[in-house]
Design brief:
Strand content: 5-15%
Oligomer: single chain
Structural class: mainly alpha
Radius of gyration: 31 Å
Low-confidence stretches: none
Order of helices and strands: EEHHHHHHEEHEHEHHEHHEHHHHH
Number of helices: 17
Strand order of the largest sheet: 1-2
Shape: elongated
Helix content: 55-70%
Mean pLDDT: 93
Length: 470
């Protein structure tokens, strides 16, 4: 392989001649071989970095502190990076020391070397366009990196919201489809009172849907950025108008309503918005996992379990038991949710570990947050496409369990009183007789009264009681 020699303050290093990255990226590659996952795994993050560099170059150009020829070349290079042409050149591991400096320098070097080519120079001829002096002008990793994370998270939220919306629609559609399927509700895994299967699915749609509002609230928090803060929020090495100017340019380039933080010192050290967003995703994960637990229980069997619903069969379930089919899609989603919950703890600990004017652990915050978002997006799509839309109801099984359960005696409490109803339930459990038959045998209600009280659809909604006998 052909090499070029580049140098930094620590000395010289060989850089592959074809590479658009430079010496500082090479050092990061040497130092941080951790996960094997490069930042190129998150192309939206690369796009966000390029938007920031383009906005900074434009602001510096219009403020008269960057040579027009260099500025134009840098901005042209940024546009190409935004298009994904150089994603393979972003080779730094997602976890690294230095508070994201390696990511920032990876971007600076790629953009600088592409700008050099556009200006007619060879890669590495930094006298004409320098990664620090020109591409990073008026910037620090400490404002570039957190801003890039916020923009990336905002863009990723769009994907999360689309997946959630599709899942909510699928659950709500099943709620409508199963609105006439009477079944037993359960508490503590014991028979409770009748409900419809549709009510169960509709409730799941609501519980997922309400978190879409929580995510939108977090999205607004992410719109406040600290560009212009440079090292610690004081704006050192920038001209007075730069901070407001670069935020304005970045908002235009990204088409997002980004605003400059009113206190750049606070904004540079604070990671509260990431903690809150991660917490909401943990909340989503907890709810999704609970829904998947319910799906597995309701479909258990098929002969010796609840068996109230059928999940679409997706693959043979056993290497030894012929014909066995497992609830593999809910099981997969459960595991994604476990990972998301664990990622939230990592984000929390990383945020807490920040010291003084900077949190150096934003790379692990970014990695865990982005992983959670990507996994939840895929998991919700698979859950909807390969499970929810294909669920069918075992109507007769649901009706049979209602008829066999002593739980329907609860409906008779307004007519018989709690003590009499409890005695009926106890006798039904010990003798195997139906509640309906026992009430008639004892002459506690007429057949007309009993049939009205036990009307399937009337048992699933509030109603006025005709009469009381206690």
């Amino acid at each position: 392989m052909d090499y070029r020699i580049e140098k930094d303050s620590l000395g010289e290093r060989k850089v592959p001649a074809h590479a658009y990255y430079g010496v500082q990226t090479v050092r990061a590659m040497e130092n941080f071989q951790v996960t094997g996952i490069h930042i190129s795994h998150y192309p939206l993050h690369i796009e966000a970095l390029a938007c920031i560099k383009q906005a900074a170059a434009l602001a510096n150009l219009e403020l008269g502190i960057l040579d027009p020829a260099i500025a134009e070349a840098v901005m042209a290079a940024c546009r190409e990076v935004r298009e994904g042409k150089f994603n393979d050149q972003f080779v730094v591991d997602v976890i690294q020391g230095g508070a994201g400096t390696s990511v920032n320098m990876n971007a600076n070097e790629v953009i600088a070397n592409r700008a050099l080519e556009l200006m007619g120079h060879a890669k590495g001829q930094y006298a004409f366009c320098h990664p620090n002096n020109h591409v990073n002008l008026s910037q620090s990793t400490n404002d570039v990196y957190p801003t890039s994370l916020r923009i990336t998270a905002i863009w990723k939220i769009r994907e999360v919201m689309r997946s959630m919306e599709d899942l909510v629609e699928a659950l709500a559609a099943k709620g409508e489809e199963f609105s006439d399927v009477l079944k037993m509700g359960r508490t503590q895994l014991q028979d409770a009172v009748p409900m419809t299967l549709g009510q169960e699915f509709a409730a799941w749609a609501v519980t997922v849907g309400e978190d879409m509002e929580r995510i939108q609230e977090c999205r607004k928090l992410l719109m406040e950025i600290n560009m212009g803060a440079t090292a610690i929020g004081t704006g050192i090495n920038t001209v007075p108008a730069y901070a407001a100017f670069v935020c304005e340019k970045l908002a235009h380039i990204t088409a997002l309503p980004l605003t400059k933080s009113p206190n750049l010192v606070e904004a540079t050290s604070d990671t509260g918005a990431f903690v809150q967003l991660s917490g909401v995703f943990k909340r989503v994960a907890v709810k999704l996992s609970k829904i998947c637990n319910d799906l597995r229980l309701l479909s258990s069997g098929p002969f010796c379990g609840l068996g109230e619903i059928n999940l679409p069969p997706r693959q043979p379930g056993s290497s030894i038991m012929p014909g066995k089919v497992n609830p593999v899609i809910p099981e997969m989603v459960n595991q994604v949710c476990f990972q998301a919950i664990g990622n939230d703890l990592t984000v929390t600990m990383a945020a807490e570990a920040g010291q003084l004017e900077l949190n150096v652990f934003e790379p692990i915050i970014a990695f865990n947050l982005f992983q959670t978002m990507d996994m939840l997006v895929r998991a919700m799509r698979i859950l909807k496409d390969r499970c929810i839309v294909g669920i069918t109801a075992n109507r007769e099984r649901c009706a049979q369990l209602v008829r066999a359960s002593a739980g329907i005696v609860t409906v008779l409490v307004p007519y018989l009183g709690y003590d009499e109803a409890a005695a009926i339930a106890k006798e039904a459990a010990s003798t195997g007789k139906a509640v309906y038959d026992l009430v008639l045998e004892k002459g506690l209600m007429t057949q007309e009264e009993l049939e009205d009280a036990l009307d399937p659809m009337k048992m699933t909604h509030p109603r006025m009681v005709r009469s009381g006998r206690f």
